[in-house]
């Protein structure tokens, strides 16, 4: 559904741009034909191109539609390239660690290992579950991620990406924005997280973190009340 809305939005944006540029072109052609000698016929042809049904159809429908299709095909090719690169990096890994938290504003002392994978066949199977679909460049959500997949080659962390809202990933160090997963990959990854216990482990980690924060808040509140009592109780 998001892809459909994006396609329609892109087409309408190009349509408005085409109308604006066409309007400017007609005005310029009209003025040039009036001012510059021996350009009247050429400018008249330019204006006629916009006034005919065929000209309007080509400029207001065909051209924006073709450009929109080219843009989406380009994004699809980029998605296939990103998928191939991600799978290759995963399959190069000797082990993969899935941990709570994202790839920004990290608090390592509070992070929890949700799953550790060392079997090459399991890592390859994981890589084949992830497919990147159409992704708009530069777009990203405001959170750091629900969990992060750290990929190690021996003891070296050589690749890392965070998993967001079960529909996109953010590759650490990339500047092109979040990568949206294909619809099939979202369903497959959701089933995999449930089956491996990662989803349940993440819920437990969040519950423990919430309890810890609540305990810290209650301790601070108790200390504040004691300080207030001492202050007002002193002579």
Query: What's the total helix number?
Result: 6
- In whole angstroms, the N-to-C terminal distance is 70 Å
Low-confidence stretches: none
Report strand order across the widest sheet: 2-1-3-4-5-6
Query: What is the residue-mean pLDDT, rounded to a whole number?
Result: 83
Percentage of residues assigned to helices: 55-70%
Q: Which structural class best describes the helix and strand composition? A: alpha+beta
Q: How many β-strands, per DSSP? A: 6
As a percent range, the share of strand residues is 5-15%
- Topology pattern, helix = H, strand = E: HHHEEHEEEEHH
Overall form: elongated
The Cα radius of gyration reads 28 Å
Give the biggest beta sheet.
6 strands, antiparallel
Domain count: the total is: 2
Please characterize this protein's 3D structure.
It is a single chain. This protein is an alpha+beta fold. It folds into two domains: 79 residues; 121 residues, no CATH class. Helix content is 61%, strand content 14%. It is built from six helices and six strands. The chain has a six-stranded antiparallel β-sheet with strand order 2-1-3-4-5-6. A hairpin with a 7-residue loop joins strand 5 and strand 6. The mean pLDDT is 83.
Protein traits:
61% helix; single chain; alpha+beta; 235 residues
Entry summary:
The protein folds into 2 domains: 2-80; 92-212, no CATH class.
Write the layout of secondary structure elements.
Blueprint: H1 2-35, H2 40-51, H3 53-91, E1 95-100, E2 113-117, H4 120-129, E3 147-153, E4 156-164, E5 168-171, E6 179-180, H5 183-195, H6 198-233
Antiparallel strand pairs: 1-2, 1-3, 3-4, 4-5, 5-6
Helix pairs in contact: 1-2, 1-3, 2-3, 3-4
């Amino acid at each position: 559904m998001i892809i459909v809305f994006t396609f329609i939005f892109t087409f309408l944006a190009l349509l408005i741009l085409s109308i604006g540029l066409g309007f400017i072109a007609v005005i310029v052609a009209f003025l040039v034909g009036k001012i510059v000698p021996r350009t009247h016929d050429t400018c008249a042809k330019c204006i006629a191109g916009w006034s005919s049904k065929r000209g309007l159809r080509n400029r207001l429908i065909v051209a924006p539609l073709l450009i929109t299709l080219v843009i989406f095909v380009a994004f699809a090719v980029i998605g296939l390239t990103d998928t191939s690169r991600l799978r290759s990096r995963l399959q190069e890994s000797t082990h993969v660690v899935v941990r709570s938290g994202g790839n920004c504003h990290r608090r390592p002392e509070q992070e929890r290992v949700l799953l550790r994978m060392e079997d090459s066949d399991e890592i390859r199977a994981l890589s084949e579950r992830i497919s990147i679909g159409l992704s708009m460049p530069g777009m990203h959500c405001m959170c750091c991620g629900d969990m992060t997949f750290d990929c190690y080659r021996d003891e070296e962390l050589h690749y890392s990406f965070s998993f967001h809202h079960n529909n996109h990933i953010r590759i650490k160090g990339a500047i092109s924005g979040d990568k949206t997963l294909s619809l099939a990959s979202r369903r497959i990854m959701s089933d995999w997280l449930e089956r491996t216990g990662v989803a349940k482990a993440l819920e437990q980690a969040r519950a423990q973190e919430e309890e810890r924060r609540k305990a810290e808040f209650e301790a601070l509140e108790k200390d504040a009340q004691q300080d207030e009592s001492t202050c007002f109780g002193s002579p």
